[in-house]
Amino acid sequence: MQKKKLAKIVFSNPIHLLAFGFGSGLLPKAPGTWGTLVAIPIWFYMAMLSVPLYLSLTILLSIIGIAICHYSAKKLGVHDHPGIVWDEICGYLITMAAAPYGIFWALLGFLLFRIFDILKPWPIKWLDKKVDGGFGIMIDDILAGVFTCMILQAASLVF
Questions:
Q1: What is the pLDDT of residues 71-99, one digit of tens each?
Q2: 41 φ, ψ to 5°?
């Protein structure tokens, strides 16, 4: 699909707009990285919430993300269109759950999450290949976020 036509579809439908990370998934090269960058300011605001409220909101956004990603993928006719980056946004928010507040931690979480999301160690890669639909789009990034969160929490005990 042409970039211009895709942009028109994304910006004319609020569900596609969310799935494409407010348009960040349309940016050239590495849309997942752009989508994760969109999540950083979201985290800075959400980090002010209590941990239970932060986790509840992140879980809600992830559950909603399953439907959002499923809808966009189905309407576009592409199982996991590279521009669908809502999964990266949620994965980053999971990464940063209860993380110390600050730019160092935001960037460390970003870097570690992108490494897990790109390399997809087992079982992330297996799930990415075996699970379809909106859940399939979301689950690999959710799991990458969980793994990265554990590493970030361990690092916060050391630093």
A1: 999 999 998 899 999 999 999 999 999 99
A2: -65, -30
Domain count, the chain: 1
Percent of residues in the chain assigned helix, strand, coil, to nearest 5: 80, 0, 20
Cα–Cα distances in angstroms (integers) from residue 101 to residues 46, 86, 97, 106, 125, in the given order? 10, 22, 10, 8, 30
Q: Which tokens hold the place of 32?
A: 């997942």
Residue 41: its pLDDT value, please? 98
To 5 degrees, how large is the angle CA 89–CA 62–CA 45? 50
Provide the domain limits for residue 50: 3-158
- Beta-carbon contacts of 36 under 8 Å, excluding residues fewer than 6 positions away, are 85, 88, 89, 91, 92, 110, 113, 114, 117
As to burial, measured by CB atoms within 10 angstroms (0-12 exposed, 13-18 middle, 19+ buried), residue 19 is buried
For residue 16, which of 78, 57, 58, 76 has the smallest C-alpha distance? 76
Q: CB neighbours of 94 closer than 8 A, spacing ≥ 6? A: 58, 62, 142, 145, 146, 148, 149
pLDDT, mean of residues 131-151: 96
